[in-house]
Amino acid sequence: MAIEHFATLWQWSPTLGAGLLQNIQISVGAIGLGTLLGLLVGILLLSPLRPLRGVARLWVQVFRNAPWLVLIYFTSYVFPFDVQIAGTWVAFPDWLKVTVGLALPASANVAEIFRGAVASIPATQWEAARSLAFSRGQIFTSIILPQCLRRMLPPWMNLYAVVTMGTALASLVGVHDLIDSAQIAANTVNRSGFTVLVYFSVLALFFFYCYPIARLTQRLERRYAF
Amino acid sequence: MPSEPLIQLRDVHLAFGDNPVLRGIDLDVQAGQAVSIIGPSGSGKSTILRCMTGLLRPQRGNIRIGDTAVEQLQGEAGLIALRKQVGFVFQQYNLFPHLSVLDNLLIAPTKVLGRPRQAVRDEALALLDKVRLGHKATAFPGELSGGQQQRVAIARALAMRPKLILFDEVTSALDPEMVGEVLAVIRELTEEGMTCVLVTHEMRFAEEISDQVYFTEHGRIVEHGSAEQVFRAPTHARTQAFLQHALGEGSQRPSRPAPDVLTNLGRYSLSV
Ligand SMILES: Nc1ncnc2c1ncn2[C@@H]1O[C@H](COP(=O)(O)OP(=O)(O)OP(=O)(O)O)[C@@H](O)[C@H]1O
Ligand SMILES: [Mg+2]
Questions:
Q1: Fewest CB within 10 A of the end CB: N or C in chain A?
Q2: Do residue A146 and residue B98 have CB atoms under 8 angstroms apart?
């Protein structure tokens, strides 16, 4: 019985593997885009100009406090199916929309991580650098940022793990990800024992992808705690 | 015969909100002199040093360092020019934790002064030898003791080739057994003729190395004069009371410190 289910699972494993790759693709895209956007928003958060700060703060508040599923629905139904770039129509596939949908809250979180890291550098570092005749910009790039990047790494990796888990939402807007593949497998085989097994496998795959990241994060946290 | 002083403060007033911290400070430092500022906690000693390097701006009065009227500096460029000439050493060392000891010394001369890295590197290694930390060039600040970090901080200030150095209670955060090694470095600097302004609670040390001593209280200079005069024959009652307390009634002061005693300052260290 059980052996038979495992054999079936083996047959389905290419489909499940392709689904997992889809999740990984979305998560990497979302964290990449989210990090670029987030650093930009984070720099604006520290801007001396009030209107810029205001816009950045609004961005952070809106996207940090919106349920991720709502953002994914939002990007899935607001964006068109294809866009015209330089005269040719380029498809805007669902997985890309989900990537953008996850990149929005990721960017808000990256901005907060960045702002927090900058604020966590003691004022005495600024003072020491100022009394060595550094300019404001030099202090930022040579003294503050390098210390921030180290401090940002653990929470950033943590965020990546959370984003990866968030990619499970992609199946709800029709992306053929791991959950979707598992659903298809379960429906096709239509045996309750197999259904349990396939969802356990999904759980295990997510776990074995995210757990090493969490462990590495912990190690880095300890290493960079100066 | 005293020439034009390198540092001159005249009637400097500064208040934080409605808390007056400096209430008319006059102070002169000749080039090559070591000047100590002593006084009770909160009397404005750190504030005086911060004004000198433009970290704080007084509301009234004049501060001249070399040819620079510090209180008139507008914008960053003027302050940067000033700070290239004025070293500052902090109580908490404030080394850059992400850089090795050597890079802590190199970063300002290369990035700020734009000097060639190789030349600065040779100089920095010589400075590390001078503060007896040549073997720690590749270490990171977190791996050093407090006394070692403070010596790196002094070397870092020296690497900018400043005209003068301000020391703000640089031994107060140190364990007693490390105070001596830091004071030895400062003593060497003063002997070489570096202009030094020290805020310190190390009364014996101040007495030994200072050309001039200023005693501050409540934002005013209560008394100033040669080390000999201020420590041996203070005229003001407040100074007398402060010194009596600072030096401790019980501790017997040697009438004339023997040279061999001075090489080991560890046991002279006092904290107020
Ligand atoms: N940034 C600040 N904002 C408000 N008040 C301040 C600030 N810095 C210092 N003060 C106040 O100014 C007064 C003098 O401070 P200062 O640090 O110059 O004293 P100090 O003589 O160096 O004392 P200590 O020996 O404790 O270092 C204190 O009452 C302090 O509370
Ligand atoms: Mg002080």
A1: N
A2: yes
What is the SS3 assignment for A51? helix
Distances (CA, A) of B108 to A128, A135, A137, B98, B239: 11, 11, 13, 14, 40
B96 reaches A (C-beta below 8 A): yes
Complex confidence, ipTM:
0.86
Domain assignment of residue B255, yes or no? yes
Digits of tens for pLDDT over chain B (272 positions)?
557 899 999 999 999 999 999 999 999 999 999 999 999 999 999 999 999 999 999 999 999 999 999 989 988 899 999 999 999 999 999 999 999 999 999 999 999 999 999 999 999 999 999 999 999 999 999 999 999 999 999 999 999 999 999 999 999 989 888 899 999 999 999 999 999 999 999 999 999 999 999 999 999 999 999 999 999 999 999 999 999 888 774 444 444 444 444 444 433 444 33
Q: Atom 17, ligand 1: which residue's CA is nearest? A: B46
Q: Which of B94, B111, B113 sits opposite A124 (nearest CB)?
A: B94
Question: What domain range includes position B5?
Answer: 1-85+164-172+196-267
Tell me the chain B residues in contact with residue A150 when contact means C-beta distances shorter than 8 Å: 98
Index of the ligand 1 atom closest to the CA of residue B56: 1
A82 CA to chain B: closest CA distance, Å?
47
CB contact under 8 A, B80 and A128: no
Topology annotation, domain A2-82+89-223? MetI-like fold (1.10.3720)
Place of tokens 């008394």: B223
pTM for this entry = 0.81
Give the residue carrying structure tokens 């830091």: B182
The alpha-helical segments, DSSP class H, found in A121-177 are: 123-131, 136-138, 145-166
- Tally the domains of chain B: 1
- CB B190 near ligand 1, within 6 Å: no
Q: Ligand 1 within 6 A of B224 CB?
A: no
Q: Is residue B79 part of a domain?
A: yes
